Amino acid sequence: MKPYDTELSKKEEVRAMFDNIAPAYDRLNHTLSLSVDRIWRRRVVRIVGRLHPRRVLDMATGTGDLAVMMARSIPEAHIKGVDLSEGMLDVARRKVAARGLEERVTLEAGDAETAVAAAGSVDVVTVAFGVRNFGDLGRGLAELSRALRPGGRIVILEFSTPTMPVFGRLYDWYSHRVLPRIGGWLSHDRQAYDYLPRSVDEFPQPEEFLTILAAAGFRDCRARRQSFGIAQIYTAEKC
């Protein structure tokens, strides 16, 4: 599934979509989630911090929220943020500069399916709300595994579908009816905010995604449910 259903590849459409919505992305993300996304990111930072990494690759870094949080909370770590969208990276660069983190956070354009880091060169890979936008999920995860040193860890924060019946129906109504209208109105891109909840629907359920992680070269694959299943934090170790 693609955001705009044109002749372009999914990767190219996702890049265009995030370029379009970059100016409004942070405000909408925090507003539409009631800032719960900040709590989830802080949990990711705690998990990463306990690993004491020196080199972190933050794939699909977007506007840099997670990269900045890790840099501020893990003083010994250098974070490399990579994203498809130059529009999102422009926002991230301003955040990094405003906090004086230019020496510890580097940002560059790229995607998970190409060699954005040398083999075995990073201790931890993080992905927050980006893995479902990979053009080729298996290939992207395999590339991230290649970049990790042996025994390195991957930590993925991603939306999922709540399984509790009443809450699940309420969340489905909100994500498919309310979110696209507000997001489309404020970002001037209704198709983007139609795509985002549909991309969650099509993303593998936690059990299936853990199997995909294992096939990509990871072991000890685990999922931690967040906020009644609205999101999951996946962790795994490179074999």
Give me some keywords for this one.
globular, 49% helix, 239 residues, alpha/beta, 8 helices
Task: Give an overview of the whole structure.
It is a single chain. The chain is of the alpha/beta class and 239 residues long. Helix content is 49%, strand content 22%. A seven-stranded mixed β-sheet has the order 3-2-1-4-5-7-6, sandwiched between helices. Helix 4 links the parallel strand 2 and strand 3. The two termini are 31 Å apart.
What is the number of strand segments? Answer: 7
What can be said about the biggest beta sheet? 7 strands, mixed
Helix and strand composition category: alpha/beta
Question: Order of helices and strands, N to C?
Answer: HHEHEHEEHEHHHEE
Please specify the SSE layout and strand pairing:
Layout: H1 10-32, H2 36-49, E1 55-59, H3 65-73, E2 78-83, H4 86-98, E3 105-109, E4 122-128, H5 137-147, E5 148-159, H6 165-187, H7 190-202, H8 206-215, E6 218-226, E7 231-238
Parallel strand pairs: 1-2, 1-4, 2-3, 4-5
Antiparallel strand pairs: 5-7, 6-7
Helix pairs in contact: 1-4, 1-6, 2-3, 6-7
Quick recap:
This protein is of the alpha/beta class and 239 residues long. It is built from eight helices and seven strands; from the N terminus they run ααβαβαββαβαααββ. The radius of gyration is 17 Å and the shape is globular.
